[in-house]
Amino acid sequence: xxxxxxxxxxxxxxxxxxLFHWQKLSGFILQSKEYLITxxxxxxxxxxxMISDALSISIYSDNxxxxxxxxxxxxxxxxxxxxxxxxxxxxAERNSIxxxxxxxxxxxxxxSCCSVKLWRYHLIxxxxxxxxKLEEAQQFLKKYEQTKVMxxxxxKQSQQSISSFSMAISELLRLxxxxxxxxxxxxxxxxxxxxxxxxxxxxxxxxxxxICFCNRAAAYQAMGQILDAIADxxxxxxxxxxxxxAISRRSSLYELIRDxxxxxxxxxxxxxxxxxxxxxxxxxxxxxxxxxxxxxxKSLVRNKNMSDALWREVTxxxxxxxxxxxxxxxxxxxxxxxxxMKSN
Length: 344
Hints:
Helix content is 78%, strand content 0%. The protein is mostly helical. Among the domains are: 21-97 and 107-168, Tetratricopeptide repeat domain (Serine Threonine Protein Phosphatase 5, Tetratricopeptide repeat, Alpha Horseshoe); 274-297 and 307-344. Mean pLDDT is 75; it is low at 12-22, 97-107, 153-157 and 340-344. Residues 259-344 form the J domain. It holds the Pfam family DnaJ. This is J domain-containing protein. It comes from Eragrostis curvula (weeping love grass). One of its GO terms (cellular component) is endoplasmic reticulum.
């Protein structure tokens, strides 16, 4: 009799415990969904924490995993979205298998497996898009389309949204490719038009816009419109502060207009504070070789009507400017090599 009472007591305690956690889990889900649906950005971090807490209780919940990925996306933690979706896909596929007997069990298995893949492919594609990696985004959208064909019952609204997203990416890639093709063919004005069209068509992926601004800067430079090229590089850097290609290109452009102080600043900026001493030394050697005074003026073509005295004056001035820039590069290297200066 006592044993029976103890067992009843244990079952009651377990029931209360499970009920408590279920209520807690339901509260987390409802509150988090509200934040995600209304996109209350100041509360997304709280939502992410609640979702993580809920996942600690229900570790196999694919709905919670999807909510976590959406929260990370809203927080612009795109690399984490990609990593999370890829790491949890295999686990989700394994746990989505339907073991229920019956004639529809196979179709249920297919639908479940497709479902766990679809939202992951979609969010991975979105993350790559926002990172400016449109080719990778397009690959995952193709995976999405291939999975969708497997008779998954998905909402029409979602399908329309995916199709529009896929078409937008294809158009942006087409415009960028057309700009690149025109540039390599020496049709710089046409390249500018294509890059501009891509910029006007894109309002969401700031990293892709940075790439287009940088590419358009190259076209402007080839046309001799140096100030326009500098402006585009500056826009690219404003959108993506760590875009080394834009920083390097602007440094070269500043050098062309003999603004050596700004050129040196960009060369120094191109070396990340987190770089090791070996990386800094490599970057310095590359810059030093490129801007060595002995190489100054070698690309300059002498006009036939230019006198020897004027030619010497021009080459001497170029050498003096190059020497000044070379010293600035050396100074930047010295500063970055000092641990205390590097941290500043």
